[in-house]
# Entry
Amino acid sequence: MKKDSVFKLFYTSLYSFKSIAKSRFVGMGKSLQYVSLLTFIYFLPSFYQLLTSKNEITTIVPNLQIDEGSVYVLIPIYMIFMYILNFGIIIIKISLLSYIAVFIAQLLKRKLPYRQAWRLTTFSITLPTLIFGLLTLFKWTFAYQLAVDLLLCFLFIFFSIRTMRKIK
# Structure
């Protein structure tokens, strides 16, 4: 697991609960690289929408007269700010779900310290994050979108923990 690339971990985290369970032994540096990649992939549809719509900047800051040159300065600043904001939100989401993962592991009689739960949760949220990132590309929303996202995350966490060995 330690020699696997971040892209291979991303690919296997989409479908394999066993590889997600094994990913809890990956180092913290690789986990943070993975979160950066996941944030970038999650943010790509929003970035694409901003670049394709020319009036988007005026909807971000209403009643602001912006000339053509200022747009080329504001868009990169806005994109960097939004990436950092999304990165922070995903880190908070992983941290909160990790506490629940530790509780689920106790219920299933598996040994899972918080640091391993954090890494397991990092790889468990891959598919839900990808799905809901793509939904923004198609501008499709529905009621209880956050609840469905969290439910998918819980399912991935649960099934990943279930593939781990029980405590003797």
Notes: The helical segments are 6-13, 17-22, 28-52, 56-60, 68-107, 114-124, 126-137, 145-162. The longest helix spans residues 68-107. The chain has one domain: 6-162. The mean pLDDT is 87.
